[in-house]
Amino acid sequence: MDLNETDGIVENRHPWELSRTRCILKAIHPYLKALHEGKKGLTYLNIGAGDLYFDHALLNIYPHDTVQAVDIAYPKLGKEGSINKYHNLGQVSGMADYGLMMDSLEYIENDVIFLNEMVQKISAGGWLFFTLPAYPSLFSGYDLLIKNLRRYNRKTFQSVIDQVDGLEIIKMHHFYTLLLILRVFEKIKKQKYDPDKYLTAMWKHKENGFVTQSLKIILNLDFAIHKMFSKIGIRLPGLSLFVICRVKKRSKLRF
Length: 255
Description:
- With 255 residues, this protein is of the alpha/beta class.
- 36% of the residues lie in helices and 21% in strands.
- The protein has one domain: Rossmann fold.
- Strands 3-4-2-1-5-6-8-7 form an 8-stranded mixed sheet, with helices on both faces.
- Helix 1 (15-36) crosses helix 8 (210-231).
- The radius of gyration is 18 Å and the shape is globular.
C-alpha cells in the first residue's frame, strides 16, 4: 500500500492489492527459486515499498532474505528485523540479488536515469520485476489524484529499457482486462474522482468478506488468462503491465 494513501492503518485491503500480491508472487517464484538454489538467503531491493505488505508476503516464502526497502514517505528509517528502510536509492549500500518496482516507476521524474542507477545495485544474473500502469491514453484525473507522472505501453517501456545499460526485457504482458474496461468507461464519462471513494486505502468491504474475496478471485483468473495467452504469443489488453527484466553484465554509468 502506498503510504500517501493511508494514515498508517489499513483495515481492509483492496481486492486489487490482494490479487496483485498473490499473482506477482506466483509469477516471479520460478525466477527466485533458481536464484536461491544453494544459498540460505538473498538481498533484494524494493523501490516504493510502501507499508511492506508485499514484502511480508514474500518473506513468508523466503524468510532468510533481506529487504532494502526504499520509500520517501517512511517516517522512520533504519533496520526492522530483515527489513532496512531508506528514503532514497542513494542511501542503499551494497549489492542486491534482485529488485522490485511495484507501481512505482511512474512516480519518478526521470525513469531512465533512475533505472540506470538502480541496475548498478543489482548483481549480474539477477532480475528486476515491474508492474506499471498501462496505456498513456488512459491518463486521467485518477492518475493526477495519486500523483502518477505517466502511464506506459509496451513500446514506451521498451524504449526506456533500451536506454538502460545492462538490462533486457525477458517477458512483458498486460493484466486486469476487467479493470481496463472500467477505467475506459470512467474516461469516456470524464469521471471525477473523490479521494474518499477511489483510493485503494478507502476500501470499505471486509477483507475476508464475500465481496472482496469474490473480486480477488475474478482478478486472479484475469491475470492467469493473460499469462496463459502470453505464452502462445497472444496479447490481451489490460489496465497494468507486468514486466520481467534480466540484469546483464554492464559497463559503468556514463552520466
